[in-house]
Amino acid sequence: MDGSSYYIPAVAMGIALAFKAPALIRSWRDPLMRSVCVLLALAGLVFAFAAPPTIAAVNHVTGIPNVSAPLVYCLLSAFSASCLVLIVNWRGGPPDVTRRISRRWITGYGAVSVALVLLFVLGDAPVEHLRDLDTYYANTPFIREMIILYLVSLTVAGVAMNVMCWRWALQVHGWLRTGLLIIAFGFMFNIPYSATKFIAVVARWNGGDLDYLSTYVAPVLASVGAQVSAVGFCLPLACQRIGDSWSTWSTYRRLGPLWRELRSVSAHRIRTVQIAWWSPAELQVTQRESDIHDGMLNLYPYFDPRVRSRAHEAALAAGSDPAQAQAEADAAMVTAAVRAKESDPEGRVINSAEPTADPSTTGPRDLVRMSIALRQSPVVAAAREQAPTRSESDFHEQPH
């Protein structure tokens, strides 16, 4: 594997981290967000510092032969801990339990990192080896133990990730389960990676030469496993984001009929601040709901409870459930009120209106159901065709 095989994934991780940075700043106290960003940062660092050109550069800059070895091993240990902590925070649970488990993993792999550095300092590795350090120094005191320690720690992380992901996957469904299974599959590569390294090292202990397993086979396994796991981490989050956006835009679209019905009486036509078409979907929905509420407030003097009552009875008789019947009744009252207002251009009803109760006392309305009813309900269509004009005397006679 040449340098580009390491640097391309490192750059990809850096770009992903850059996109996450604004969300991290806004939600710094969110453990899950912190875990995601730490994992992306460490994954990028592992790929960048494990590249042979970077290994040579670090050794040259520090003047210490093979100092990149404990650096890369410590980064791998930190990355393993970050993956475990991310799964713990992602799964959730009682905050105290989550923090306690996270601290245990961080402490454990922190101790491994310290031990790796100490073993390297105690050992003697004067000849620089960029690709085959594990096998070349397999019989060197302390360096040998450093190699075994980092391989064991990677194996433990791989097994732990598989256990946690499989247990959680059995309890969830959808994209989350798919992502967890992909993560587990990716971390399964830790086991053959460590196995090939161990086989090559043990062969050296016994006077054999299987260095190619450590030098050429193991790096490919590690790279494939890391990239598969990255897909598993990103897939549920990306699909959830896409699903949320789709749901939001769907709500925006379904509110369209009610929004258009109220355009003639809503203040949004003269709004000084316009929402740009590229604004976030949530803001677009909020603005559309605000326009609808403004229009309904302007229509309130024209609302006729008798229209609503008749429509409600008709909807129930047609087989609608109570929630749907309420939405159809509200939609029928709204469409009748729009026509009543259109037939009262001088505003006589409003001018002669007595103080009425706050419209909010009528209870919340399901705007989406109302909007769909405007387009599909025969009860609403009948109310629209039969909408009478309310007179001033009608207004005074109606309860509010």
TrEMBL record:
It comes from Streptomyces sp. R21. Residues 338-400 are annotated as: Disordered. It comes from the Bacteria. Residues 391-400 have a biased composition (Basic and acidic residues). Residues 247-368 form the DUF6545 domain. The chain crosses the membrane at residues 6-25, 37-58, 70-88, 109-127, 147-166, 178-196, 216-238. Keywords: Membrane, Transmembrane, Transmembrane helix. Pfam families: DUF6545 (PF20182). This is MAB_1171c family putative transporter.
